[in-house]
Amino acid sequence: MNVRAAKLAFAGTALAVGVASVAEAQPQTIRFGHVDPDNWQNSKKGAAARIFKNIVESETNLSVELFPAGSLGDEDEMIQQAIDGMTPVVMVSGAMSKVCPAASVLDIPYMFESPVVAWDVLDGEFGDALAQHCLEQTGLRTLGYGETGFRHFTNSDHEIRTPADMEGLKFRVQDIPLYVEMVEGLGAEPTPIAWSELPTALSTGVVDGQENPVGTIYNNNLHELQDYMTLDGHVYGTDFLLINEQFFSMLSEQDQQVLERAGEIAGNMGRSIQQFTTAEGLNAVQQEGMQVYSPTADELAAFREQAQPPVIEWLREDLGDDAEWIDRLQQAVADATADE
Q1: How many CB atoms lie within 10 A of CB 57?
Q2: Are 140 and 78 in contact (CB under 8 A)?
Q3: Whole-model pTM?
Q4: Which CATH architecture has domain 28-338?
């Protein structure tokens, strides 16, 4: 072998070793955790995770290992695992605002008048900007937005049509200041209680009512403990499908594109399942005897005018420099509503 041939052979060997090293460096398995059941037919996160897995595995050489039903811990634990890279992909809702406070603006009461408005906002410039901000804050890239649905009040005492009907009632709320401010603003008494203790609290009269999406109310049989539901839709819950940015950067550009598309589709799949379970659950609770009331536009305006100011005031102080996100969201909602 002459010198030129030897050099070419050495270069070819080096290139092969380099390609092999790159291939070995790229992750082969993606761990994906969430807290919902695995059943895709009535679980929003379960459906999103399943379609994400199917798309990624059918279009790349990557495999996706699903960890549903809180098998890796609660949302707070899983989002920390995602930040640390232990579980690169997670789908969470309320936990996001704990690591990216600006995300809490999405919980401002009576901000979205319909799911379509919320989708327009999240899938537009505001959602892109929030995703970039949270990426810089946490190292987590938002691959897609799903939803946990609109939250509604239920109680076992009397029908609620206006904020005046809330007075004197005790409502279980999550241990989140924003929810406490909201219920107090409406004239009721907020009582933070752990989710696991809610059925007992309702049965024993520790609280008169609670607030949750329709699907959650029906699937957990809370309608059997409550007589009245008011479809006020005070908070629209958002799901965040997240991936660790360092993990994402190790993937090939082609695989990154597949994951981004899979994330967007997964978010929309979660939204669809949530809408399905809402419609199905609303019909079911009424058939089983629950009285459901839909407030008029004027009645909803009264709820909004009473609940929003104290929450926004508290949130501006809590967010500090990030308070600008309140104004950005309000403008985005106004633009989306004008386009309706």
Answers
A1: 14
A2: no
A3: 0.90
A4: 3-Layer(aba) Sandwich (3.40)
